[in-house]
Known about the structure:
The protein is of the alpha+beta class. It has 7 helices and 9 strands. Helices cover 61% and strands 10% of the residues. Strand 2 and strand 3 form a beta hairpin. The protein has helices spanning 4-15, 24-44, 53-138, 142-148, 152-249, 304-316, 329-335, and strands spanning 258-260, 270-272, 275-277, 340-341, 349-352, 358-366, 369-375, 383-389, 394-396. The protein is rod-shaped, with a radius of gyration of 50 Å.
Amino acid sequence: MISGGTIIHSINKIKIMPHKTEKPAFKRLRIALMMLALASLASVGAVVHADQYDSQIQALQNQNSQTQNTVSGLQAQAGSYQGAINILQGQISALQAALAANQAKQTDLQNQITDAQNKITEQKALMGEVIKAMYIDGQMSTIEELATSKNLSDYVDQEENRTAVQNKIDSLIQQIAALQVQLQQQKAQLDILVKTEQQQNDQLTQAQAQQQQMLAYNQGQQAAYNAQIASNQSQIASLRAAQAAANRRLDSSGQVITSGSCGGGYPATASGSYGPWGCNYAHTSDDVPGCSYQDSWGMCNRECVSYTAWMVYQTYGISTVGFGNASDWPTSARRAGIPTGSTPKVGSVAILVGGLGHAMWVVGVSGSQIHVHSYNDGFDGNYYDHWVDASGLTYIYFGG
């Protein structure tokens, strides 16, 4: 279909062409295009039926459903990020505890090495004193040493004592030196281990930071998607209000005769294969998937089709199981061999086709107006009793 704007643009192009003697065929074409453009513009001002909002609402609900799926996926992903962060934190904590213990060992080994070095220094100093004393003693000749000794045995004992002391100090120095070498080797190995643990700690900390960054980005995405869902919900609410207003404009009397939570013969309470239902049970908002309660024909409680399904069954004993949304009823009826038409009759079901549609029970006809009972005109699950324009509706004649 060519839009009105496209047609007007084409006409404007024709107007700015250099003036020439117009051939009859071109003249007829220009007149036809102008008439089509005017008709397209005139159609813009047509009244929008209430149920034409359904497609917009459905699109927003579908978008919200898809967005919610995305958010759910992000939440699962966020959970995995958080799980990874927790695991890494556990590893970091364990590694830091081991690192602290090994660093304490490093300090202890260094203290032992220093202590050993101090002992070596002390023993070397002591050995120096012994050697010095031996040297002083060594200035004496053997005859002098013998002369100063009480006897030969005393001389031998002194010599043996000096040698024993020297050997003992020398052995102690060697033991301490060997221990120092062993401690240094242990410390060198421990230094390598501590360095490795520090590197591992740095890597784990970096990995944890990356996971936290991804988690923060994920949470930002969730917030943006949730904001989009909230914005769509706000648009849906506005469309619902506009749709309800459009439904009210269908009322030829300009006002609803009566409205309330129950009426029109709809049962206060009933029971079917889907469980209890009726006016005493809550109506599920149209923005909420599924039904809180379903009637005996699988219709959502206190919806327009639930009421007409009840009236059809009470009046004609005909089941409308599987008839679907209101817009689907004419096709479902014809498939079941039930006639439809454009002429209103008392006891017929009037269907406003478009989007999900709207179903009404006809209780009176007066010229171009029909008196109807219906439910959920205002998307509130309530009963309505009013007059509407009979034109533009499809009627289903369950009574033949």
